[in-house]
Amino acid sequence: MDHTQSIIDRQPYGRFHRKLFLLSSGGPFLDGFILSIIGVAIAGADEDLGLTTFLEGMVGAAALVGVLVGGVVFGWLTDRVGRQAMYTIHLVVLVVASALSLGVTEAWQLIALRFVAGLAVGADHTIATALLSEWLPSNRRGRTMGALVAMWFVGASTAYFVGYVVASSGGDGAWRWMLASATVPGVLLLLGRLGTPESPRWLLSHNRPEDAREAINTAFGRYPTDAELTQLSESEPPQSARLSELFKGGYLGRTLFAGGFWMCQVAPAFAIWTFYPVILGEYGFEDGNTALLWSVVVSLVTLAGCLPAIRWVDTYGRRPVIIWTFVGVAVSLAMLGLFPGMAAALAITMFVINALSLGGGNILQYIYPTELFPTHIRASAMGVASSISRIGAAAGTYLLPLGLDTIGLGPSMLVGAGIAAVGTAMCVAWAPETKGKPLHESAAVGPRPTAPETVKVP
Fold it and tell me: What is the pTM assigned to this prediction?
């Protein structure tokens, strides 16, 4: 029997996979929507709630801190109690937190609700990515997980568009409706996810072969044979989830790589996305609602950068895509930093190159963490990597306006270029090639577990 191609890897990409992708992509969509809509709503909240500069920063950072905490906590919990159990519970929290935004009257209430919404988003990073990757055949895993990341930019673009429409229509408390609008996709996603089968890989890693049989039948319309289930179980021996595994042995380097490259991507990216109106103003563009439209355009260009890279990770490989997209980000930011007085048309060209490169590289954010760690710690690894990245995102978002005030536009862009250069060096040194490998092979470090630990199929 071929021990590299399980029943999951041999299954043609079909209706079940497409549905699971659609439902899983709702998480990145909501992530992009929730983290972007606050940039539009903050002006109205400032006027109604009388926010100080400190409180504005707290409102902006609350969701990022929530994502950081949610990734670690719910990643570990998802590895312990299962993907299916967590696949819908956290969405209830997100829907309630979004709906309660309509009743905000104090700054602390807004900060608390943004933090709770961030917790739910951080949870979904770990839950949906682990579940989807564990159901995908190896020959479609790269492009499908990459497309999952692309939905972040769809959510961000939608948020800017919704914000532009609501802001243009005016009205008292319009910002509350902007924040509460996440309730609609949240409810639809919650209803759609009901009844999704558990990951058979997770079930086998918890010594539940009969439940794995039922899950495979629910997904593919047939029960696996004893030989097929035995083959899959040999790659998923029962093991307990220990968060400490991520920080020792062969997995320590993988944890540092997964979180490190992700942080180097988002630290300059989130700062630029958050303050695009300010930055574009430095290059001679208008602010106000026109800047919101530019933000939509930039999000769509970043999304466009995702599309060819989704194919390239399965044709050229993960390693060349992540290295060369980092180079594109570093070069474009260096040009913006070295020549801050460049013509507006040339500045836009550099921002387009930057956005295309960011989009292409960002699709690896969900691919590498799910491929480099085994089932029993996969969600935990995703959560830790996501949380490390949010440290960079929060730092970049906080420091960019200070940099613009103290060292100026050019040096601030050069700092971003330097971070991208560090990411390039990190990927040249550490990025592995996992294209086409079954999950148990790409995640393997050291010797395989001994035969007695293998699930015995009745």
Answer: 0.82
